[in-house]
Specification:
Blueprint: E1 5-7, E2 9-11, E3 14-16, E4 21-25, E5 33-38, H1 42-62, H2 64-80, H3 82-93, H4 97-119, E6 124-127, E7 133-141, E8 144-148, H5 156-167, E9 171-175, H6 181-192, E10 201-203, H7 208-217, E11 223-227, H8 230-242, E12 246-250, E13 255-259, H9 265-277, E14 287-293, H10 297-310, H11 329-344, E15 348-351, E16 368-371, H12 378-381, E17 388-394, H13 397-405, E18 409-410, E19 412-416, H14 420-429, E20 434-437, E21 453-454, E22 457-458, H15 468-471, E23 472-480
Parallel strand pairs: 1-5, 8-9, 8-11, 9-10, 11-12, 13-14, 13-19, 14-17, 16-17, 19-20
Antiparallel strand pairs: 2-3, 4-5, 6-7, 7-23, 12-22, 15-16, 18-21
Helix pairs in contact: 2-4, 3-4, 3-6, 4-5, 9-10
């Protein structure tokens, strides 16, 4: 497959190229150049922000039925084209085709869900402490929202940001990741073809340190929704606070699964392997810490290693592929450095952790399992974003919970147990924003809130009805009704 695509930037309703371009290369086959993507300029950002401010006022005035209809049309088309756009995702990001297709379909569901939420804008009334005065409380759009999204879910993550932004009457300036520009442009094209004001959504591709920073600092931006790393998030937070902007950030993770001595071992191994190695470990919900009761430790580890070795690593578009390549040469280099770091700190590498050769040259890596690890090792403290998981032994539930909570992060966490008492205690005492009982840490629904604690999240939750907290502001109006006589 060598169909090449030039990815341009969507600026104020127009697709515009630039002289600066970067090649978009298939990580499954480095000889497959998908195309070039144009790098946006600061002047284009200024144009996009100006247009967004005008478009937002028109969009808000258009009313809730209009917003519902547009979002429903976007979602319906994305679901209908899930195979087409999903193939593009798999080609440029490296996830297996079934995952790429599923991601696009889920993105469509986000839009249809928030189409309904656009109609669910019911305010509050209150009695005043003073006679003759009525009080009306309602939500209004925050304004122009900057959206900065990652490469690992190039359609789904921006969808769960753009959909509520538009549903609640905002305009959006979107900076997708430079590693996955073509699939981002495909979704932007679906949105831009709708009957919306020019500039309601602009898409600008470019370096985070240049275009991303300029977006965060731009005086015409009212709010910022970001998904990415903790260091970048901290920089965004500092700039946003200086500019008095609203912020919502989803950042790093180090998700644990506790496997107790009463766990269903078939379920525990399957869920741990799926959560650790699915999407090549390139998920913020991946399980990279497995805390296993010593009574079942050896059995679990042996079966987990067998499961990891059995996974088929290959070209993302090939039938039967379970694990695709990692996204880039830089990511692969970082992954292999973590393998070296784990061994250097005394962890035992039981399988994987090596670069793989396949029929096409790509960034392939064998899923790795470390045993004999401790919670103070780098591989158990830092987010790796790699097909690497680390097993730790615990002598009791209390010890396992303590180890699980000993992290700067708190996005997702899971427990495998048949005990209702342990499961209930875990739900009450595990410090994470999303908890799983007898389920993998990866895999969440779109109609309920998503987010974490600690360094994993900052600001209001994403998804579901909770999204309204970030994308709107509250206005309270007092009205003197006068004397009826």
């Amino acid at each position: 497959m060598n169909l090449q695509v030039e990815t341009r930037n969507l600026i104020a309703g127009r697709w515009i190229g630039t002289d600066r371009k970067v090649a978009n290369v298939n990580p499954s086959d480095l000889s497959d150049v998908i195309g070039d993507h144009a790098q946006a300029t600061r002047a284009q950002l200024d144009e996009a922000v100006d247009a967004a401010g005008r478009a937002q006022r028109v969009w808000w005035a258009a009313g809730i039925q209009k917003r519902h209809d547009v979002l429903m049309a976007i979602g319906t088309e994305l679901m209908a084209r899930a195979g087409e756009i999903g193939t593009l995702i798999s080609r440029e990001e490296g996830k297996p085709l079934a995952e790429g297709t599923g991601e696009v379909y889920r993105a469509g569901q986000f839009f249809t869900y928030f189409a309904a939420e656009a109609l669910r804008q019911i305010g509050d009334t209150a009695q005043s402490t003073r006679p003759g005065i009525e009080i009306d409380v309602r939500r209004e759009p925050v304004g122009v929202v900057a959206i900065i999204s990652p490469w690992n879910f190039p359609v789904a993550t921006p969808a769960w940001k753009i959909a509520p932004a538009l549903a609640f009457g905002n305009a959006a300036i979107w900076k997708p990741a430079s590693l996955t520009p073509a699939s981002a442009a495909a979704m932007a094209e679906v949105i831009a073809r709708q009957d919306i004001p020019e500039g309601l959504l602009s898409m600008l591709i470019g370096p985070g340190g240049e275009i991303g920073r300029a977006m965060v600092e731009h005086p015409g931006i009212d709010a910022i929704s970001f998904t990415g790393s903790v260091p970048v998030g901290r920089g965004i937070a500092a700039s946003a606070i200086a500019g008095m902007k609203k912020i919502q950030m989803e950042m790093g993770s180090k998700n644990p699964i506790i496997v107790m001595d009463d766990a269903d071992m078939d379920l525990a191994v399957a869920h741990a392997a799926g959560a650790a190695f699915g999407a090549s470990g390139q998920k913020c919900t991946a399980a990279s810490r497995l805390i296993v009761h010593d009574a079942v430790h050896d059995q679990f580890v042996e079966r987990l290693v067998d499961a990891a070795k059995a996974l088929k690593v290959g070209h993302a578009l090939e039938d039967g592929t379970q694990i695709g390549p990692v996204v880039s040469a830089g990511q692969l280099k970082a992954n292999l450095a973590y393998v070296d770091a784990g061994q250097g700190e005394g962890a035992e590498l039981l399988c994987g952790g090596t670069r793989l050769e396949r029929a096409t040259e790509g960034h392939y890596m064998a899923p790795a399992v470390f045993a004999g690890t401790t919670n103070d090792m780098r591989v158990n403290r830092e987010e790796m974003f790699a097909p690497i998981t680390c097993v730790m032994k615990a002598g009791s539930y209390d010890e396992a919970l303590s180890v699980a909570n000993d992290s700067d992060f708190g996005l997702t966490a899971g427990i495998m147990t048949r005990s209702l008492a342990r499961a209930s205690h875990f739900r009450a005492n595990m410090r994470a924003g999303t908890l799983m009982v007898n389920l993998p840490t990866a895999g969440t629904d779109y109609h309920v809130p998503f987010g974490g604690m600690g360094a994993s999240s900052y600001g209001p939750r994403e998804q579901g009805q909770y999204a309204v907290e970030f994308y709107t502001t509250v206005k309270t109006a007092y009205v003197f009704a006068g004397d009826p006589d």
